[in-house]
Task: structure prediction
Amino acid sequence: MPGAESPSSSAFHHVTCPFCGLLCDDLTVQGKANELKVSQNGCDKAKTGFSRGVPAAFPRIHGKRSDLETAVQRAVSLLSKARQPLYSGLATDVAGMRAVIALAERTGGVVDHMHGGAMRRNIQTLQELGLITTTLSEIRNRADLLVLLGTDAADYPRFFERCFGAEGPNGAKPRELVFIGGKAPAKPAALSATVKGQAIACDVQALGEVALALRSVLRGQRLSCKEIAGIKKATLEKLCERMREARYGVLVWDAARLDFPHSELVVQMLAELLRELNQLTRFAGFPLGGNEGATGATNVCAWLTGYPLRVGFSQGYPVYEPERFSTRQMLASGDTEALVWIAAITPLPPPKSTVPTIVLGQPNIDLDPQPAVFFPVATPGLDHRGHLFRCDSVVSLPLQQLRASPFPAVATVIGAIKDAL
Amino acid sequence: MLTKLSGGRVFDPLNGAENKQRDLYLRDGRIITRPKAGEHPDQEFDIRDRVVMAGAIDIHTHIGGGKVNIARIMLPEDHRHGVRKRTALTRSGTGHVAPSTSVTGYRYAEMGYTACFEPAMLPANARQTHMEMADIPIVDKGAYTVLGNDDFLLRLLSSRKPQQTINDYVAWTLKATQALAIKVVNPGGINAFKFNQRKLDLDEPNRHYGITPRTILQVLARAVHELGVAHPLHVHGCNLGVPGNMETTLKTMQAVDGLPLHLTHLQFHSYGTEGERKFSSGAARIAEAVNANPQLSIDVGQMMFGQTVTASADTMRQYAGHKHAHPKKWVLMDIECEAGCGVVPFYYRDKSFVNALQWAIGLELFLLVLDPWRVFLTTDHPNGAPFTSYPHLIRLLMDRGFRKEKLAAINKSAAAMSTLGSLEREYSLYEIAILTRAAPAKSLGLADRGHLGPGAGADITVYKEQKDKEKMFAKPELVFKDGELVARNGKVVKETHGVTHVVRPEYDKGIERTLKRHFSDHQTVSFENYGVADWEIEEDGQSRLTIHPCRDGGS
Result:
């Protein structure tokens, strides 16, 4: 634990940031006692996240101060009574997720992540059609055309900086950015002299139609209408031409922004469009996402159980029910008797429900009403080392410990509960 | 604790023991010569008439890492066929062609396997591969890192850097990714596919870098050899699955100036173009070349009929194969300027001409390659078939009558084009012990595995001999891992954790300066966070690293 015990200021380099799915790992963070400050390469999200201090906090039972042992006992008693506890939130690192799966298996529980719905849209496509995707370094070195659909990537503040670091794609063409649906950023850092940008307005809900139209044009079919989703036919045809000419194009979307019924069909249409494009040139998808440890959570779940998230263990073995086991559905249907909510990265409270709740959360999480049991837990990458996955699902990175925290890691609390069962 | 296994019939090729009745003594996880005078065993197993071999070793099995996890995620329908309930002793899990981690470890142990090697770890995905392998219980693990399509290497080659620089880079990669060996997959082809080249033969240059697969094979084979790494360059060649690829394979064997090579899943690289369908067996010529070149070893990648999934870094060939996907879904990824990944489910049919001939070609290779020390038993799990089909495969090799019966059931035109019906060879138990234990251990440089001599790790499998070899090898009576009884009659009785085998040849640290610049100019991970540190593997308290020495002469 370099420097964390020293009262004087120390600098940590190559720090991995846990606060979004891009997992930037080039931050410099200054630490003094338990105060952390990003001094290099942090976006606003990172600055806020790292500057969260270590407030005085204690385990609580129905809002009353308790201690770890008593709180563990209370959690055990709630979980032993529950027929099918729901483990949700799951904003934790790989070790935390391993512990959660072991406990869920032991207690016949169900696991879902707070971003389970967004992830489901991509995974459903993977399971029905498959996908062609790429990773950040490929984009940085090869992509000459990025088409963003329904997102300006603003939730991932350094996305364009990470994409456009190298000297140029394939050492040749200038890069171009096209935004379809959703606003183009007024002046994104990306739109520098070397990057051309274009915005095409349309309703996010119509992105599937737009993708279908592009695919049809690529197949040599004629569009019989003058416009699709408010986009002029000529604009679409021109875009098709540009996509066809790209040496290495990338479609970027953020499934969290496709928050409407059956939006998985949009992702499926993008998958079909990518297949069409790859008959001509190279093109790949880059689904943004993976905040709050989501990508790691679903990967750990997959290697331990065989299935990605939304798995239940009430039969004594993993059962995959991605719709029925959603947090919303489980709480609404009364299929669960206890909620374990984990939010160790950002202080995000659990959804409102009448189900007795155990929260493993950031010490300063705002909880109203007070849950049955509350454990303040350490933040991975600030208070303890560990691992998270980047949103491309390929790269996982080590997290550093930057300070001494009085709070236990999620894996420690979950492990203690399992041992006490 | 002293354990005695009394009276078994030992098949231990590395110590020259063929069917020798011998007592074995185990202490502290090792085989010992004999106990001290007057010392009595704490436990004794009477294994008279039983066949005793070292624990089996799978030299090429895709058990972990991104492509395997994508296969798991993509195929929920597959997992319902392979459900395992939680017990007081074992975790639950699922999966038939792409099993979950615990199920992988249990099934291997229950089949008498005690070590499994993941042959396609991408450097950028090494951390995940090790995380997954850490969750595979009982068996030892290790991985081969994929190089040869990375833009860094291609840049070194196009700027004509000396072999020593390549060697330093390869050695650094082995250390940074915690690997046991180096693999090359479709040398240069995965990279060329990113520049929209759709095929790349041995002497075809990459459109952007101008480098040919031959050059890549040469420098990597030399690097591995000069660094003294025990396992030679592990080669998944060009043109996988392409009719006529046997010519490329024959040229590949001769491409590296007589340096050792291991040619993997050679079944997929042994195709001719004869006959009406322009698809024929090249096994005879390939086997002849293997027989004539003692520096070569192979594994077969036997294909079996039924549902499976293919998972490979070879995006160029996987893209071409997607048309045959069953069910109709497939994933393709370009990865971190290093390589890629393609996951395509297949259903191999015995009535399909092509599939039936593939099946026959694999068996022809097994039967025509004469030296059992240079051919290893694999199905390229899960690409040819899931590893659970090994007992069936062993029976096909040991039982001519059974083989002919199966041959009679496949596509008639394929059977007619194969010489399999005329091959009378039957593998002996001793040869099976070579294929599945002694030879892989020797090839990988695992000095204390794959045999039953004093000092060896006490990884031991005890079989009841049966006429039906499939039954015999499916459920060994006893399986010991590091001296502990872990499975009995094909059921796990204890969950333990094996080690991760790695090598760390030395290198000139100067390469790290070059790499740092490369990382800041091209990659999206900091150089400092790229390598997998020891703590990342060992911190969970159950995984350990075992570092193997490199050969004398290695720098």
User: Anything to note?
Assistant: The first helix of chain B runs from residue 66 to 74. Chain B has one domain: 53-492.
